[in-house]
């Protein structure tokens, strides 16, 4: 049985969303709590152990961006040569919330945490002799990964809303491939 276009899009969104979630959790688990402070004459140099948290965070951000991009393409894709105009598609307030918020939520949090962790590793010289060399706050990568999973699931809900909007707009049933005829014409008898 061949998958239809909507199922392929949904599968891709789900795969990259789950991949982003897993990579974010791995980044959280592999992140060290702190580096090793090496006191010097004018300050402290922090030496951090080699860890994949920044790379995993970057891959998680890329995965959630791919998931969001595919979700965005999926809701505007012309199925069977028919596309719903954007104005008709975004007529629902619920649809607008899904549409605009989802592109920012998970990706923004993951990018922020990844950049923050990368800057902590790069700026490792401090003038304060009492500096303890902490890394980013514990739980940020994990929280962002749950936001990524939520965004993935919301994109799937958004695709269901688009399917309903498409069926309403075209008065067309995608599963059966025929035009709906729910009303019976009553003649003048």
Automatic annotation (TrEMBL):
Residues annotated as transmembrane: 9-27, 58-77, 97-115, 135-157
Lineage top rank: taxon: Eukaryota
InterPro entries: DEAL/Modifying_wall_lignin1/2, DESIGUAL
UniProt cross-references to Pfam families, sorted A to Z: DUF1218
Membrane protein topology class: Multi-pass membrane protein
Record's subcellular location: Endomembrane system
Keywords carried by this UniProt record: Membrane, Signal, Transmembrane, Transmembrane helix
Keyword Mitochondrion: no
Family designation: Belongs to the DESIGUAL family.
Protein name stated in the entry: Uncharacterized protein
Native source organism of the sequence: Dendrobium thyrsiflorum (Pinecone-like raceme dendrobium)
Taxonomic lineage: Eukaryota, Viridiplantae, Streptophyta, Embryophyta, Tracheophyta
């Amino acid at each position: 049985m061949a998958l239809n276009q909507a199922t392929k899009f949904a599968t891709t969104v789900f795969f990259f969303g789950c991949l982003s979630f897993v990579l974010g959790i791995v980044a959280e688990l592999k992140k060290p709590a702190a580096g090793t402070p090496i006191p010097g004459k004018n300050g402290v140099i922090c030496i951090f152990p080699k860890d994949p948290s920044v790379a995993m965070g970057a891959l998680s951000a890329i995965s959630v961006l791919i998931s969001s991009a595919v979700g965005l393409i999926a809701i505007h894709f012309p199925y069977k040569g028919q596309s719903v105009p954007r104005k008709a598609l975004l007529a629902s307030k619920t649809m607008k919330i899904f549409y605009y918020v989802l592109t920012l939520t998970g990706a923004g949090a993951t990018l922020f945490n990844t950049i923050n962790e990368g800057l902590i590793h790069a700026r490792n010289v401090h003038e304060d002799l009492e500096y303890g060399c902490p890394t980013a706050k514990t739980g940020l990568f994990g929280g962002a990964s749950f936001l990524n999973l939520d965004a993935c699931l919301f994109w799937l809900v958004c695709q269901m809303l688009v399917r309903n909007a498409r069926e309403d707009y075209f008065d067309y049933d995608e599963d059966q491939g025929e035009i709906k005829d729910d009303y019976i014409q009553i003649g003048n008898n």
